[in-house]
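> example.struct
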């Protein structure tokens, strides 16, 4: 049995990040007889300067990428279909907003030390994309933390503690300096980068090649 370290750089408001993870999950499931994974999540803010009230998602995508309304509708349909294929439910809606995720990442950094990072990551993806909640809202964040067994009072402290915000910013800067400027980014054994939401088949192939090459 080989154990591989998998670092995932992602944002909880990135639809391709949850699709990419669910595909990775499938890949690892098909490899479970020979390979186990030690997974670590790392912060990446798609919109670090986003105002507290967020922005209409469709308007944001149009401003950022020049995407037309027709293309936006088509993209949402594609993402919804891809989500269904991997067992994740997207509930896009016209007034959907995108938010700043710094506080969410503060909780995720803390959750790692509590061995609850994976559960919280999944709860936050579901809160935003499935339950249509504001993942910059303190109440939503504390409820997500409590749902996975984390202390809500400590979670509230983490959200308001500037040192945790600084830790997120420092971690993000390290990844930027390492050349990560888009997500999802999956790093195998701290040196093999897989960019984007690759298919489960491609991920199986890549992981097997890495394990074989490293012996």
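> example.seq
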């Amino acid at each position: 049995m080989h154990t591989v370290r998998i670092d995932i750089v992602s944002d909880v408001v990135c639809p391709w990040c949850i699709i990419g993870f669910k595909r990775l999950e499938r890949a690892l499931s098909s490899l479970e007889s020979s390979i186990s994974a030690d997974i670590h999540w790392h912060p990446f803010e798609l919109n670090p300067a986003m105002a507290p009230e967020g922005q209409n998602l469709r308007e944001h995508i149009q401003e950022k990428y020049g995407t037309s309304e027709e293309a936006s509708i088509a993209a949402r349909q594609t993402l919804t279909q891809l989500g269904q294929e991997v067992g994740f439910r997207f509930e896009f809606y016209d007034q959907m907003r995108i938010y700043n995720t710094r506080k969410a990442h503060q909780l995720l950094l803390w959750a790692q030390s509590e061995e609850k990072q994976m559960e919280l990551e999944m709860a936050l993806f579901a809160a935003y994309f499935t339950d249509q909640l504001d993942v910059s809202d303190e109440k939503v964040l504390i409820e997500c933390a409590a749902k996975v067994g984390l202390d809500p009072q400590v979670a509230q402290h983490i959200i308001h503690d500037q040192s945790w915000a600084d830790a997120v910013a420092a971690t993000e800067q390290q990844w930027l300096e390492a050349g990560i400027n888009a997500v999802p980014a999956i790093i195998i054994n701290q040196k093999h980068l897989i960019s984007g939401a690759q298919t489960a088949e491609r991920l199986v192939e890549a992981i097997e090649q890495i394990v074989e090459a490293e012996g």
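> remarks
The mean pLDDT is 96.
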